[in-house]
């Protein structure tokens, strides 16, 4: 029993296909790392600002939790500053739980990095 031309084709293509898939996965990881480092660096080079703001909306994003995997929840709050501009900042769950929509206060942030919110009232 000999090899057919299809067998020759598969033995030639499969190693190339395997390498391409491996390269795409590694390339994806490298892209994510570079993007994260770029955002971290941009935040470090941004000024630290403290401005009056209002909590407009809150949201969460939950991933995982199926089968044997644990769930991971990311917390976001949208703040509106006096100029009317809005920004959504990611924060930890314990800080997220302390804020309510409509809260007024002083927001401290650096780039896209949330640093704190000192509540001083609520909008009427």
From TrEMBL:
Lineage: superkingdom: Bacteria
InterPro entries: DUF2500
Keywords carried by this UniProt record: Membrane, Transmembrane, Transmembrane helix
Pfam families: DUF2500 (PF10694)
Transmembrane spans: 12-34
Name listed for the protein in its UniProt record: DUF2500 domain-containing protein
Organism of origin: Sporosarcina koreensis
